[in-house]
Structures are given as structure tokens and as C-alpha cells.
Amino acid sequence: MKIKFLGGCEEIGRSAILIDEKIVLDYGLRPSDPPEIPVGKISPKSVIVSHAHLDHSGMVPSLMSSNDNSAPDVYLTSVTGDLTQLMSRDTIKVGRDQGFCFFGVEDIKKMVAQTRYVDYGERIALNSSDYGADYEFELFNAGHIPGSAAVHLKKESEDISLLYTGDLKMGDTRLMESAALEEYPSSDILLVESTYYGRNHQDRKEQEREFIDSIKETLNSGGSAIVPCFAVGRTQEVVMILHSYGLTPYVDGMGLSAFRTFRNHPRFLRDADELNNAFNDSVFVNAKKRKKVLA
Ligand SMILES: [Zn+2]
Predict the structure, then answer these.
(1) Which terminus of the chain has fewer Cβ atoms in its 10 Å neighbourhood, N or C?
(2) Looking at domain 204-287, which CATH architecture does it have?
């Protein structure tokens, strides 16, 4: 099994791991200014996407146009599929404002046509003659955001296996159940996310209380608390925390679209009712109301 890293090493962003020139695990974008993309030009037969964050999925549509007659199959969970479309459309919009263009609407349409939804625990064989050897993979809940998956890939002809965790979260959050590490199979090769390597996380409850205390302190002294959040996963977690402490936030941005997508896939959530209640009790901000809210 030949493994090539096309990005995501000693950096956060543009994760892309090429296996035997045929299968790519994630194909992300580093949303820096200007954005950075995976190195080299590749024509894989299959793309397996661990989760919908841009740094793991953001460049998948670009693989469609370079392969006019043989666009790769794209394997991901259903919620990751919906979110990847949402994020890709947003990337086109941001690119128009900032002067970059990596793919177009046609590529997104092609990506949708090439998409094969996969459930956790489902074994998928990649065994056409295109592959030269038989591969099989399976996805496991990675606990990071709804639909996030670790990928276990086996290459039958070499009797070798690889586990790629993608982004991994151990321990429950309000939005997600912890990664089911006890279900992960053993593997010959382990590629593990290491963003927080060597750092201990603060106790989650303690951190929540500090966050809430600082918001209350701001409000009590007549201020407004603005909480900038990533749209997919973080916004929903923060809204759920605020709701549990009886605070009603105004919610703006793409986090609302991501919430609506999550709502359509309740089985990927720890508690869909809790998420719905938190958003039902929030105030959604539309463009017309934005100035008024900030005032
Ligand atoms: Zn992520």
C-alpha cells in the first residue's frame, strides 16, 4: 500500500491522503488567504470523505472536472453529503468575492451524481478492474461533527489494513456522542488526527461554566456578547450550551443552514430534540434584521 500525503502535515487544512494513486481519503482546502489546496494533480477512482469541514472536503468538487469521462465515486455519510454541497456552494460565493475559483456549479452537480452514501458499519467493496486489486472499507463514528467518520481500509491482495481517523472526538458533547473507539478494528497502519497532541483539555463542564460566566458578566455590565463560531458543529454546540443555561442567542450565518441539515438527519445526533428545542428558542437573524440586532 503506497501512501502519499498531499497536505495536512504539520499544518491545519487541506487534508488529503492518496492511496496507491487510486483512492483519496479526504480532499480539503486550507481556508487561508489565499486558500491553499492539496499538492499535485491527481485522478483517483474513489474519494472517501471523513467529514464535511472544509479542510477535509472543500476541494472534492475540483476532482470532477479533471476527470471528464471518469469522475471518481465519492463515498460519505448522508449528512456529510448534504453539508459538503452546502459548503461547496459557499466556497464558490466566497471565491467570487476574494478572487479565487477552484471549481464551478457544474462540478458540484457532478459530485452529487457521483455520490454513494455509506452508513457506519457498512462494508463497501471497491473491486472493479480499475483498482488493480481489491479494496474494502468501512466507516466508524468519529464523534467530531454529525456524520464524521473514521475510515478502515483493507487491501486484500497485500493483506494490509489502514485506519484513518479524520478529526476525532473522544467524550460526549451536547451535539454528539463520543467516537465509538471500542468498535474500531485493529489495523496495520494508523493515521491519527493530532491537532491537540500533547495538550490536556480542560474539564468540559468547568469550561462551559467559565464561558457562561463571562457572557453573563458582559450582559450584566450592559454589553453585548458576540460569539464567533464555525458554522458546522460549533454553532450548534454553542447554541445548545446557551439554551441549557437559559440564555437566548441571536443566531446568524451559515450555522443556521447547517442546523437545518442536521435536523434532517436526526440519527447522527446525540439528542435531536435537544438541538431542535435550542434552535426553536433562539432568534434567527436575517439580512434585513442584522443592523438592528448589532445596534
Ligand atoms: Zn473537522
Answers:
(1) C
(2) 3-Layer(aba) Sandwich (3.40)
